[in-house]
Amino acid sequence: MNQKNLMAYGLIAIAFGAMGAAAGLYRKDSAPLTSSIAPTGGPAHTPVTELFAQAMNDSGGVRQALSQWKGQALVVNFWAPWCGPCVQEMPELDQLAVALAGKKIKVIGIGIDSPTNIREFAAKVKVSYPLYVAGMSGTELSRQFGNAAGGLPYTVLIGADGQVRKTYLGRLKFEQLKADIATL
Fold it and tell me: Distance between CA atoms of 151 and 140, rounded to whole angstroms?
């Protein structure tokens, strides 16, 4: 990659970061960043069924069926390597994943970028939870969970029963997430 392309990509990343920050500041004052979906007591919501129907490569390139997570509560984090708030919250997500080890709740990351970019990112930034490569189809999957704007990061809390308990748009407030996890 030549210097000119690298600079152009850098400027694009900065522009997206600035737009995300501006949107976050605007939304912070005008509306809460979380929303709840009440459990229905019936079969799993369609987005969860769709999630478990997926097979994605992990950051190492190995194909994984997401159905392996059925029956466990999940914190599903939609992220991208070029998303500043996504990268900033990853160390805390990793600490949460370590704290939850051995419990029936898991943290997984669904990356919205190319396999190469996610593999390179995962080689530099080590996290203990699994990272999957969804590419741009991850944006559509996050929309099915209520992320109409397609913003990142977007996190979904799913109960072991397959019901969506809460969604979070923007950088996580970990005290709130921990309190929500405690209710599962």
Answer: 11
What is the bridge-based pairing of β-strands 105-111 and 131-133? parallel
pLDDT interval class at 34 (50, 70, 90) = very low
pTM for the model stands at 0.77
Tens digits of residue pLDDT in 95-138: 999 999 988 899 999 999 999 999 999 999 999 999 999 999 99
Q: Look at strands 34-36 and 105-111 and give their pairing.
A: unpaired
Q: What is the rounded distance in angstroms from the CA atom of residue 21 to the CA atom of residue 27?
A: 10
Pairwise CA distance, residues 36 & 164, whole Å: 8
Task: Report which DSSP code applies to 37.
Answer: -
Q: Could you give the maximum distance between any two Cα atoms of the chain, in Å?
A: 56
Residue with tokens 């999630």: 51
